[in-house]
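Ops channel
N.P.: pipeline sanity check, posting one input/output pair.
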């Protein structure tokens, strides 16, 4: 893929996965509370985290194509690309943490009571 696609996926992957997981888990809660398996909740979390990792890898790839000494506060294309790649990495890290933090309660307590 090109740098533009790498940057876009890197920046959007984390927030998009978090929003989709939040919605999907809310929709699946009734099924799980009525005796369904919790494995489906864990499976979509793992799938979501894999998508976030793909976004981080794409941001990393874009970052590796920029000069190491390029600043992140300029207006030239290498500087913009470097800033966006770093922002994509930070976004993926933050939202991976948010996804995992959102799963801790379901591991510790049974929310159907």
């Amino acid at each position: 893929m090109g740098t533009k696609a790498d940057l876009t996926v890197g920046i959007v992957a984390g927030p998009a996965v978090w929003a989709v997981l939040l919605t999907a888990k809310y929709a699946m809660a009734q099924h799980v509370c009525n005796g369904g398996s919790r494995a489906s909740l864990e499976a979509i979390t793992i799938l979501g985290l894999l998508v976030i990792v793909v976004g981080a890898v794409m941001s990393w790839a874009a970052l590796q194509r920029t000069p190491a000494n390029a600043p992140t506060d300029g207006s030239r294309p290498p500087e913009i690309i470097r800033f966006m790649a770093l922002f994509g990495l930070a976004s993926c890290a933050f939202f991976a943490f948010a996804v995992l933090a959102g799963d801790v309660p379901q591991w510790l307590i049974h929310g159907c009571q």
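N.P.: looks fine end to end. The chain is about 80% helix and 0% strand.
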